[in-house]
Each structure stands twice: as structure tokens, then as C-alpha cells.
Amino acid sequence: MAYVEPAIVPPSTQHPRLLQAFLALFVMLACTLLLMQFMSQSPRHWTGDPVQTVALDEQYYQLNQAQLASLASYTSEHFSAAQLGSKEALEMRIAAQLDSLFARVNERLPLFADWYYSLSGEYSRMAMAVLSSSKLVEGDFVARKAAEVLFPEPVWQGGLTRLENDSNGLILAQQAQTRAAWLRGVQGLLAAQRVPAPIAGLEDSRLRAQFKPLDPLLIELDELDALSPLRNRVAVSSLGAAGLAGPALWRAVAARNALASARVVAAGSARGGSRLGGAAAGAMLCAPGGPLAVACAAGAGVVTWLATDWLLLQLDEAWNREELLRHMEAALLDLREGLEAELLTAYEARLAAIESASQAVISQTFSPRTSQ
Length: 372
What we know:
Low-confidence stretches: 42-47, 260-267, 276-283
Shape: rod-shaped
Helix content: over 70%
Order of helices and strands: HEEHHHHHEHEHHHH
Number of helices: 11
């Protein structure tokens, strides 16, 4: 069988042309769609919220307006709460100091009672009463004696000075702790917003306008420490001076009828009558004494007078000493409460002034007008 060689068919040129036309149409359609999509888009803002660079303790943070407002609120609330804590701590410190100071005064009450029921105390009161009625002395002698015995100047004034110094020191320490705690708290809150320090000399005016340093805030708050101390406020208070505390205490005792009662007046009258009767009895003992009768009568009368007074004072003390001490303890408690109230009022006014000044500084610091 004869071999037949296959015929060669020339390649067709129609398919490549169709493919090229299809690709060109696809490209034109895609470009048209992209152009339409581009024309329908609104302009996008790629700058985001405006930020400010905050500098504090050689660290830098970038905050937007919401974060900056949150920082301002945190600062205001932190210092306001700290003032409440300082007030509570101050109340506890003043109460403890007054408890210790008045405990020492209370320990001296028996010494005053010993003097009051002694012959020297009795005769000194009588002598001062005569001088007072003659306008030769002024004031209440017993009240002055109460100040001398119960509130000795070195002990009393020294205790009040320590109270004042400790209270002032407590306020200053509390304010320093408040500032340190605020700095730690801010550094923790802003840790995620921390940025590198700006390169010196490369900041333009726009960046400087967005820069807010907070170190001046701490400096101004430090300067408010000058408002904290009360200088000599305790010593010159209406109840703090020993010369005023004693009379105030004795007036309170008298108001409680510890000594000004009719029973005590009657006891004094009885002592006066007993003195005369005792002196007459002593004179009768020396009646037969001849020329020495006058001297004997005088001596016997004085001895009998003193013995009678001593005996009556012993009886008066046995009946009234405990009541006197109870009234003096109650009056002393009233005096302590009055002094405490006066001190707390003065210190609360000082803390309120510090709080007001602190909030004013904080408000000014975070005001948009203070950006530099």
C-alpha cells in the first residue's frame, strides 16, 4: 500500500485578533470603573485629631483633646480627694495631741485640791478677797492660782507649740505625698502615649503652639506650701494661753456650782463663827494667868483659831473634795473640746484656702489659653 504524506494546514490568524480585542475592551472597562469610583469618593482627612505634646518630669507624651481633658479631670479629683484625706489625718493628730496634753493637766488636779483645802490656801483667799474689795488687786485670785497650778507655763505652752509644729508638719508632708502620688499616677496613665523627646532646634512655630509643659504646675503647687502653716495660732488662741485657760476652767467650775453654792458659803460662815468661838475659849484658858494672861490669851487664841480652821477644812475636804474634782474634770473636758473646735476651725479654713488655690492653678494650667 502506498504511503500518503499528511497535508499541512496553515495556522489561522483570526483567534489572536479576537483575544487582543477582548483584552483591550476589558482594560477600558476597568479604567472606566476606577475613574467612576475615584470621582464618587469624598476627600479623606489623614491628619486625625489634633494632639498636644505634654512634658512632665523630662518625659514627653502626645495627647488628643479627649485625653488632655481626662488628665485635667484626674488632676483636679486627685488633689481634691487628697485634701479630704489631709483633713481626716489632721483631726486625728490634733485629737491625739490634746488627749496627751490634757491628761497631764488632769494629773495636776489633786495638787490644786490640796492647795484649796490647805490653811495657806484658805488664808490667801481671805487676804486676796480683802484686797480685791479695797480695789488693790484685780481679777480672780483662785482663777490665777488654777492657771499657775494646772497650766504651768513651760509645760502648757511647750505642749501647744509641739501640737502646732506637728500639725503644720503633717499638712506639709501630706501635700508633698499628694504631689508625688499625682506624678506617679500620671506617668502610669500616660505610659502608652509616651513619645521621644523633640529634637532641639527643629521645632517649628506650629509644634511649639501644641506644646504644654506640666512641670510649672508642680512648681506652683509647691509654692502653696507657704499657705499651710499656722504661726503661733495655738498659743494665742482664746483658750490656748495658760493665763486664759485657768480662768476659763475656774469659771466653768463655778458655773457648775462646785464652789459657789449656798452650802459652801454656809460652811465659810461656820468657819468664821468657829474661829471667834475658838479664840474666846483660848482666852478663857489663860484668865487666871496674872500679868502673862494677855500674852497667854493671844497665843492660845491663835493656836485655837488655827486648829479650828484646820479641823473645819478637813471636814470640808472630806465632804466636798471629790465633788470639786468631778466638776473640775468636767470643766477640763469642756475646755479641751472648745480648744479642739477652735483649732479645727482654723486649720479647716487653711485647708480650704489651699484647696481653692490648687484648683485655680490646675484650671489655669489645663486651660487652652495657657498652651505655649
